[in-house]
Amino acid sequence: RRLVVLVSGSGTNLQALLDEIAATGTEAYGAEIVAVGADREGIEGLARAERAGLPTFVCKVKDHPTREEWDAALAEAVAAHEPDLVVSAGFMKIVGKRFLARFGGRFVNTHPALLPSFPGAHGVRDALAYGAKVTGCTVHFVDDGVDTGPIIAQGVVEVRDEDDESALHERIKEVERRLLVEVVGRLARNGYRIEGRKVVIQ
Ligand code: GRF
């Protein structure tokens, strides 16, 4: 299976996938990363891809006259690598109709909260501010909402009294990276069906 991974930041989830595939081997893992895309230049996630010798592309909203044209350009850039599965690993843009028309049903996102709680760009901060005692991470298929697609797997992380956002996010990311590696491998090896809100992995 061919994976394209989309990043916007440090890329530690990408790195976890790279490390697992390097350790397990493409055959045994069931997938290889064929390209890494981003919405901005100069991020560690792109540097990690380059160090791994992977093709990269950057698709910036401000390089396009409209959001729809950015969305179409992103879909083209991803499609050029003929992915079976697209993984958003900290990609901080909401894709639109064109992208979903092309990759809906094979576009997975990881979110650092237990959806449907705390969707959006500040899930860790929001859980902390709310006083949640447990939070965690969710790997889900992307649909036309924000963090609303069918849930594939979740991991629970306790919130500690002394936590600030970055400490809690780091602890979530430890669980999230393992969850993403496990889920992507299973989807790639076993195949899956999406039945309404249910994801059935063969
Ligand atoms: C992850 O926790 C992801 O869920 C959130 O941003 C973080 C990205 O981390 N959207 P990294 O870029 O993979 O290190």
Describe the protein in words.
It holds the Pfam family Formyl_trans_N. (6R)-10-formyltetrahydrofolate binds at residues 67, 92-95, 109. One of its GO terms (biological process) is 'de novo' IMP biosynthetic process. Pathway: Purine metabolism; IMP biosynthesis via de novo pathway; N(2)-formyl-N(1)-(5-phospho-D-ribosyl)glycinamide from N(1)-(5-phospho-D-ribosyl)glycinamide (10-formyl THF route): step 1/1. The protein is of the alpha/beta class and 202 residues long. 39% of the residues lie in helices and 24% in strands. The strands form two sheets. A seven-stranded mixed sheet has the order 3-2-1-4-5-6-7. Helix 5 links the parallel strand 4 (85-88) and strand 5 (107-111). Residues 7, 9-13, 45, 89-90, 110-112, 173, 176 line the site of 5-O-phosphono-beta-D-ribofuranosylamine.
